[in-house]
């Protein structure tokens, strides 16, 4: 509000860029990530006159991943500004990532002036063309007067229904043009009417199936977190006694310490979780999309089960797995409606007992090797040292799976990872965004040495803002997951996956005026973690771990989820 | 299996690109597309003939189309009572001697000859795809120089069959 008041005083005549700023402020935006350039000079000039907080990363990719981390933790849309051409194309990976993981982003890209669009002008790229398949929707502003309507629609589309990224491309001559506009109060989008309320007949059908089920299981995805359904889910589970498994992105939606929680399912999920999905006679999917990394070979997935699928996106239902009870609605509203319908819990003691046995007898496991630190131990230590309350942001690869396995979450919105697109380089900038969304939390960026080197230029942001992000490099001097697959499926030929030549990360951190530590033993780890995780300063900890370690257990590609390898004997 | 899918979309630049891009991204096979304005200026109708593997794939196509913000409504109208037409132009080799002969072929199809030159003539025919295919096959022996099809456009008939009016299947009749 203060920002708005000040802003209105300073603007005499409004340019398109001023209108844009006004609209952002009206939408409640207080933080934008961006990188200036030729085609957004008018926008940055207008930004200069506002109180909007702007975060300048050192690469556009850093801006968009930070916005993703911010959106994941705050639940608010991440706002990004990039210039035309290369500025926009540098944002592409993050836009695709947000699309896959349903994160609300509103991305503004500069465009060359209308008069030269289509002439291969300097820094011109067909941004709407490029981003059409990887956005929920996109716009190119055609006239100054369209800005308030389009921006309002963009925020509406990005944040409602199944969230996703929306790109708004703004030609430079429009953002510099002076004119008068009307700010619309309402939105008119006849082609976009997401459905939130469940069909009660379907809910009753599901309640009936729950009464009759002998081997029910709930698969809880990120939809639980997006819709704020975690409390409702807990109540449903406690009243019905049905066991729960999570997807990778759903972690935190259900408390990991709960006795009915079986762990994460999927390629590197727990034995108990995967067997529950395999053996179930009723599979209740709430807000997950049956990704191939979860289901394994579809021939063997939930073949014995009546499948109920609750999803706000109708296109997800029946896409990969045949569904018997489809419910297109918001997860929270559906669970609440379900709570009104369910009565006595089903008689499933035998089933629950068996799954609990599986969980106890075949837990996640690893062997400690002499002299080298196990990466799993490192994650367990992080959990212990932060009482399981930190926000954990990961990159992609082995360390990501270990973090998912060995850092159990009790609460939602503590876990940020790139699941669908699997974007290396995501972790560190996303941690910056997460820290900005939750300034008082401990944010740990668990990254691999490979992925960290893709976006480590963002250390400048920590240096500049003194954000207390704790960077933990799980350093095995290789692209661990690639190496693991080459070991397991490509005859041990480690083609281009070993990267022993790397910077001295400790000195690197120091050049950015950030404390750096190298840790090689468990004792050193304990010492450094206790000394650095609890203060409000950034730190980089280069943890040398056993480079031979593999992520287990595993559903090998092309096999069913019941055929796990590397299960505890 | 072939399905006829029709959609009402916002009449804006880029919408065709969104729709065809979506189809190629999700590996749907398009046989034909026709697009044109409707009675409302800012709304266009698109009609697709798609080749899908099964009903589930067709359902997925419709859902994905429906997800597009610029797509207002989508129907699979294959199984409804519909009027479906396409327009085809066929340039056939002909000399003055066989013009009358071709005229005789074209007539029953209620097609018309719209251009004549020294060594060819152009036939215009409208109708459903079967009729059009039949005429093309009849003209093929004369030598088709060029052929242009608009692709099918269609919508449901004003009056749909009521369920009660449908004849039950019978092995005897």
From TrEMBL, chain A:
The record's annotation in Pfam families points to: TPP_enzyme_C, TPP_enzyme_M, TPP_enzyme_N
Q: What is its EC number?
A: 2.2.1.6
Involved pathway(s): Amino-acid biosynthesis; L-isoleucine biosynthesis; L-isoleucine from 2-oxobutanoate: step 1/4; Amino-acid biosynthesis; L-valine biosynthesis; L-valine from pyruvate: step 1/4
PROSITE patterns linked: TPP_ENZYMES
**Cofactor entry:** Mg(2+); thiamine diphosphate
**Domain Thiamine pyrophosphate enzyme TPP-binding: from-to ranges:** 395-543
Q: What is this protein called?
A: Acetolactate synthase
User: To which species is this protein native?
Assistant: Pullulanibacillus pueri
UniProtKB/TrEMBL annotation, chain B:
Q: In which pathway does it act?
A: Amino-acid biosynthesis; L-valine biosynthesis; L-valine from pyruvate: step 1/4; Amino-acid biosynthesis; L-isoleucine biosynthesis; L-isoleucine from 2-oxobutanoate: step 1/4
Q: Any idea which UniProt keywords this protein has? A: Amino-acid biosynthesis, Branched-chain amino acid biosynthesis, Transferase
Record flagged with keyword Cytoplasm? no
Q: Name a GO molecular-function annotation.
A: acetolactate synthase regulator activity
Sorted alphabetically, the Gene Ontology BP terms of this entry are: isoleucine biosynthetic process; L-valine biosynthetic process
Q: Which SUPFAM superfamilies match?
A: ACT-like (SSF55021)
Matching Gene3D superfamilies, A to Z? 3.30.70.260, ACT-like. Chain A, domain 2
Q: What Enzyme Commission number(s) does the record list for this chain?
A: 2.2.1.6
**Family matches, as PROSITE patterns:** ACT
Q: Name one GO cellular component term.
A: cytosol
Ranges where the ACT domain occurs? 4-79
Catalyses which reaction? 2 pyruvate + H(+) = (2S)-2-acetolactate + CO2
Q: What class of enzyme is it?
A: transferase
The entry's family comment says: Belongs to the acetolactate synthase small subunit family.
Q: Name the job this protein performs.
A: Catalyzes the conversion of 2 pyruvate molecules into acetolactate in the first common step of the biosynthetic pathway of the branched-amino acids such as leucine, isoleucine, and valine.
Q: How the protein assembles, per its UniProt entry?
A: Dimer of large and small chains.
Q: What is the protein name given in its UniProt record? A: Acetolactate synthase small subunit
Which organism is this protein's natural source? Answer: Pullulanibacillus pueri
Lineage of the native species?
Bacteria, Bacillati, Bacillota, Bacilli, Bacillales
Per the record, the gene is ilvH
